[in-house]
Amino acid sequence: MDKKKWTAVIGDIQSSAQAYIEQSSAIEADPAKREEGKQEFVKLEQGDAENRKIWKGLVETAKKEIEKMSEALELLKFDHHFGESFYEDKMPAILERLKQKDLLHTGDTGEQYVDLEQYGLGRLICIKSDGATTYELRDLATLAFRYDTFPKQEKSELAWNLYVVDNRQAHDFKQVFKTMEMLGYDVAKSKHVSFGFMSLPEGALSTRKGNIVSLESLLEEAKSRAKKIIEQKNPELKKKDEIAEQVGLAAVKYFDLKHNRHSDIVFKWDEVLAFEGNTGPYLQYTHARLKSILRKAKAARPPKLLKEVLVGKEERAVMVKLAQFEDAVLDAATDFLPNILANYLYNLAETVNAFYHAVPVMQEADEQKKQFRLVLVSASAQVLKNGLGLLGIEAPEEM
Fold first, then answer.
1. For residue 122, what is the DSSP state?
2. Which of 110, 194, 254, 307 is deepest in the core (most CB within 10 A)?
3. Distance between CA 99 and CA 125 in Å, rounded?
4. CA–CA separation, 284 and 291 (whole Å)
5. Three-class secondary structure of residue 124 per DSSP
6. Strand arrangement, sheet containing 104-106
7. Which of helix, strand or coil describes residue 330?
8. Strands 123-127 and 203-204, how do they pair?
9. CA-closest candidate to residue 322, choices 391, 380, 385
10. More confident residue, 5 or 66
11. How far apart are CA 226 and CA 281, in angstroms?
12. Residues 35 and 141 in one domain
């Protein structure tokens, strides 16, 4: 391993990624380099000063980039950042507890494991034959900390312990949760919130192979494309840059969130930025259109004699759909499936657009009917804004 090269790329995420790609290619070409890498990892865990310095530098480089991208995505800020190294001194205690319960076994090549064969889960390896620790052991230490220590520090009960990790790790988390259960923990509050893969039309994304698109460049491209579309559709629009950024960000976020998280996704720009169909821009455009109607009407006033309004099928459809908002939010939260809320919002947008095209609103001669329909427009706009907000998406007043 070229340690000078790794030291040189610290502080530059692009150079760090390129070094990772080159190192992965070298390992593919020469199996001896894989063994060299394993030995360096063992040295890292044993406290080798040079390896530790490189590792800490790369961790800080990645953290800064993650924080930068989290801000760009307008994500909630984290109260705590506990990396894997935080649990390093907590792993011996887990190993000792496993030994005390006679759960830790030693294999033929020196590896240490928990036998989960009776549960159909094979063996959970804690220590490899070369002495290196595993992700699974660090996950056990993480769980123990979260259950034993964190609630006391925060002075509150642990509501959920969620692991948002891709589908490939499903078996590993089953092993980890079962092992913690064998140690006496109630793991009902722990859940693996798994998700599928995102790929490009030309093939799967792979950091190791260099087939990647950086999130930063993706968001810039989304903003650029959104601005071009906005200039075509509404050249007189004020604050084009600000709205283009909102639309571009919504397009990328919604495209991900509208899919069931277990599904694999193929990222296609034409689908992502379309102003029609089940897309973020379509929902934003519907909201902006409803707000435009309300601005023209000045205000939506509830009719004094609602019982005298004859409700048509289009109006009833909007009312029914609005009444389903709470259930959609609860179902999405309970099952950790944001696509439930996303698809509800799309169905609401479709329903309110059908209503708007089928019956007159501003042109309605009957004032009571007109005001009632404006109330439906106002309520629909508010629900769209609230729902998009829950998905982390802005709802522009104009587009």
1. -
2. 254
3. 14
4. 11
5. strand
6. 104-106, 112-115, 123-127
7. helix
8. unpaired
9. 380
10. 66
11. 9
12. no
* Same domain (yes/no): 63, 101: no
Residues 256 and 358 in one domain: yes
Tokens (6 digits) for 20? 């990772």
**223 plus 356 within the same structural domain:** yes
Among 4-13, 16-25, 201-210, 272-281, the least confident range: 201-210
- Which of 127, 162, 195 corresponds to the end of one domain? 195
Among 356, 357, 364, 398, smallest CA distance to 380 is for 356
CATH number at residue 183: 3.40.50.620
Task: Please state the pTM of the whole predicted model.
Answer: 0.84
The count of structural domains within the chain is: 3
Does one domain contain both 62 and 91? no
Structure letter (DSSP) for residue 278: S
| Cβ(338)–Cβ(387) below 8 Å | no
Tokens of 111: 């590896």
Q: What tens digit of pLDDT does each residue of 285-303 get?
A: 999 999 999 998 875 555 5
Residue 136's domain spans which residues? 79-195
Cα–Cα distance measured from residue 106 to residue 127, given in angstroms and rounded to the nearest whole number: 9
**Is there a single domain that holds both residue 250 and residue 303?**
yes
The DSSP symbol for 375 reads H
CB 381 within 8 A of CB 286: no
Question: What local confidence, expressed as pLDDT, does residue 310 receive?
Answer: 67
52 vs 45: CA distance, rounded Å: 8
CB of 161 closer than 8 Å to CB of 177? no
pLDDT, tens digit, 9 for 90 and up, residues 16-36: 888 888 888 888 888 888 888
Do 42 and 154 fall into the same domain? no
